[in-house]
Here is the input.
Amino acid sequence: MNDTFQNTAAKRPLVSLRDAAPWLVATGFLLVMPFIFTANSTITIMNQMAITIIFALAYNMLLGQGGMLSFGHAVYMGVGGFMCMHILNMVEDYSLPLPLPLLPIFGGLFGMGLATIVGAFSTRKAGTVFAMISLGVGELIAACSIIIVAFFGGEEGIPGDRTYGLPFFGNEFLHPIDVYYLIVFWLILSALLMYLFSRTPVGRMANAVRDNPERAEFLGYSARKVRFISFTASGFFAGVAGGLFAINYEILTEENLSLILSGQILLITFLGGVGFFFGPIIGAIVFTLLQTVLSLETELWQLYVGALFVATVMYFPGGLAGVLMMHYPSVKLGKVKSLVVPYLKTLVPAIIGLLGTAGFIEIMFHGRHAAVGDEQMTLFWISLNSHSALPIVVTLVLAVGGIWVARRFAPEMAEAWHRSITPNAPPPPAQPPSTRDAA
Amino acid sequence: MSAGQGSPPALELAGLRKSFGKTEIIRGVDLAIGRGERHAIIGPNGAGKSTLFNLITGRFPNSGGHIRLHGNDLAGLQPFEINRMGLSRSFQITNIFPAMTVFENVRCSLLWSKGYRYSFWNMVARSRDLTLGTEAILEQINLTARRNLPAGVLSYAEQRALEIGITIAGGADVIMLDEPTAGMSHSETDYIVDLIRQVTVGKTLIMVEHDMGVVFGLADRISVLVYGEIIASGAPEDVRADPKVQEAYLGAALEADH
Here is the structure.
């Protein structure tokens, strides 16, 4: 890749356009978004999304890059957030000259501080030992939220007001849009730093320790220390996310420390794909959309998210990013077009089948749980009676039929994909008289 | 590298013992391996050869005795600390980073010796000394053409070559190879033996090996380990002629080999 530079003995430019392009595009995209989606409610969703992205990227420093499965990472975000909330209140009480945009640094430092303490003993081993310690510590600190009321605020949590700080170039952060740009700044900075971290010697060794800790030790590296450094760095960025959470929501409660949130970030990261740097970003976007948009449509949204997660784990262990990257060779070989028809033939019936299934579940749920006498429901913008047979039959037929057709075309889709990633693949088996059908 | 009269041996084992529970696997091994020597440890299956390797490299703690590397006692040191003192090893079962590229495998093995330690402020891709050093090693082990492949997809012989590359990359002056030619065809074995000879010039080599052709072709001295004890140690022809060795092990192995 870099051969040309070495041959000419020229010094590599600090940043090549190819390396910078994705970052510039992403930055431009983030800056323009509020002009496309101007509603306050949408900006609120984007704020939540951006915070989740930072947290998921931080989490993936452990899971994807360091091979450490944590069941309690919410506490680092939470503690960073609580600390920021206290600092925010001190700014208000003592009129401290601290501009709001700097607040997440303190969240990061406290997240890192806690990670230093916990990491000192939890990173000795990866695998089950690490996972169990993370679970225990997570539960311990979540329990503390009710015990140490002065810090965690008990059940009410700790509220604050972001507008009391020093105005930042005249901006008092009254509106979600002001907060959006603050969060976007931290998102780009954190993501860039986490990406660069993965390019450093210790970041490379984090991968090595993940794959083969013993080998890494015989190359001069203490696997424990490599894990510890990843862990503290991850704690820092989780804390930054916590600080942004404090700014955005102006309240932190025990929920911010809960195992539910810890489980959610694992789910998000895995859904997006742990094997690629950008995987958790996709996961965070998809999950936040499901959480905010789908939850408005149906009470059962968590069921669907759960099903999506299980399907990802079982069929696409590389996550959504893995599915995307499966097609990188096809793009490189310029064979994407050949995929369109086979994909449509499988995916359209599959989607119909899944929607049919979801419709069936919704009708059943409505029939069982709606108030007595309430038989009208709306499903995909169609008003229907949940107690009549016709909608049930229709959804069942769609479900079974769609999935049956999708399964029929699935082998064709798989074959099309295989052909698209093979450089000199033979033309589709239409040219010689089709032997497969005859057989 | 000149071994003066007073300088300690590269590796010295004194009264080394190791027990697993009640079973004593290594039963008092004394051995001194001089600088620049190519030393082979042979012995029947279950003699404790791999255990001996694991004791020396800090994988297992020993139950008694001393291990000294260039005169420094290795007691209580972790594998990574021993590695930093200039001892590097390969494994009987290929032990590489299969998901990472060949290039990355070698680069990771260079990081510590090039002084990068736990740095999180250097970019590995921008470090010329790393890139050039990695390319030099890849050239040595003939894997330049394979540099961008995941190490796991290499052929068995290529993986073994890569592991030798990883083992020598850090510039350790004591190289320990655990059955480097195990499971290889004749031509592959010849290739690996040539490779070992090239990359260990001027270094101390300690190897466990079953293939007697390899042992007698490569080693300056041989030690025969039987049931946790060294029953003979010396030049290949002396060991071959030793009646104790013939009785215990070598005759049968030689016959089987020819």
Observations:
- Chain B touches chain A at residues 57, 59, 78-80, 83-84, 88-89, 95-100, 104, 107-109, 111-113, 116-126, 128, 131-132, 135, 148, 166, 170 (CB under 8 Å).
- The two ends of chain B are 38 Å apart (CA to CA).
